[in-house]
Amino acid sequence: MNVESKIKTLTEQLNHYAHAYYTLDNPIVEDAEYDRLYRELVALETENPNLVRADSPTHRTGDVVLSGFKKYTHDYQLYSLQDAFSKEELEAFDTRVRKEIPDPEYICELKIDGLSLSLVYVNGVLETAATRGDGSIGEDITEQVKRIKDVPLVLSEPIDIVVRGEAYLPRRNFQKLNLEREEEGLPSFANPRNAAAGTLRQLDTKVVAKRGLATFLYQEASPATNDTQEEVLEYFEKLGLVVNDQRAFATDITEIWNFIEKVAALRDALPYDIDGVVIKVNQLAQQDVLGFTVKFPKWAIAYKFPAELAETEILSVDWTV
Ligand SMILES: CC(C)(CNC(=O)c1ccc(Oc2ccccc2)cc1)c1ccc2c(N)nc(N)nc2n1
Hints:
By secondary structure, this protein is α+β, with helices and mostly antiparallel strands. 38% of the residues lie in helices and 19% in strands. The strands form three sheets. Strands 2-11-10-3-9 form a five-stranded mixed β-sheet. Helix 1 packs antiparallel against helix 2 (31-47). The model has no long low-confidence stretch (mean pLDDT 92). Bound molecules: the ligand CC(C)(CNC(=O)c1ccc(Oc2ccccc2)cc1)c1ccc2c(N)nc(N)nc2n1. The ligand CC(C)(CNC(=O)c1ccc(Oc2ccccc2)cc1)c1ccc2c(N)nc(N)nc2n1 binds next to strand 3, strand 7 and strand 8.
């Protein structure tokens, strides 16, 4: 086997193992074996730098220390969600939708408490990752996002696509990070969302690789190639992107509310923080009929759970009254 096919085989093998470990949470090879193959690839790439592939896992570990963040202008507006804090507000949303869509089918997704980000793939290769910013201009965090192990550097298909999702810190990594910071006499992070935001603002990408961020993708920001939001999410999984599996269909507020109550009951057992449930019209053609206000899509709403009192707030509450 010549060097080029040896590098191709090693790269594909290592990416397959990493996908199983980080994206499917289902390791299929011992760490020692992964490390041995990884070292073999680094040696071959060092001798043949012109043969390093775009999807090589070695792109994730090179220690790049940036001097600052470049601004990035999104090709597509990244919208916010209108919020609802009660069942009545959801009923008002449903009434507004039904004025234009008599029989809507909704899809309900989790609202992950992380940092919104946009991934731009060209020919299937991750070209840019950026924060949402104000929806039009964000910050380029490409080098940082390349160190998030479940973000594919190359998709399974060579397509141009802009996807949007959330970067978050799994609770177990959040607890591990705060323990380390306490031992180093550093202030701990208040919550996983702040820790994720602080990590992606690190200019030393080695720090990002160590912290164990993860992602869930939920939106195709470029013109959609599917008919429904559900099909978009299934397509994302085929491409190698991570999609949250906690979702449900609903045709009325009762079914939406049932899902919200189910999620509220399992919320504390989830390995990540959520701050609500996002309800969307599932058919993309129906989304187009409803359209957008200046800031929000009229076909989606976020039901926000009551904010959990932070430990400090709980201690300051006068429970004697
Ligand atoms: C619905 C949307 C606001 C994203 N959608 C967009 O940003 C968006 C962008 C261009 C769109 O349409 C286009 C307009 C012009 C060209 C191409 C597409 C449509 C939606 C949103 C926002 C936050 C979410 C969140 N935290 N969790 C989940 N689970 N879903 C979320 N969904």
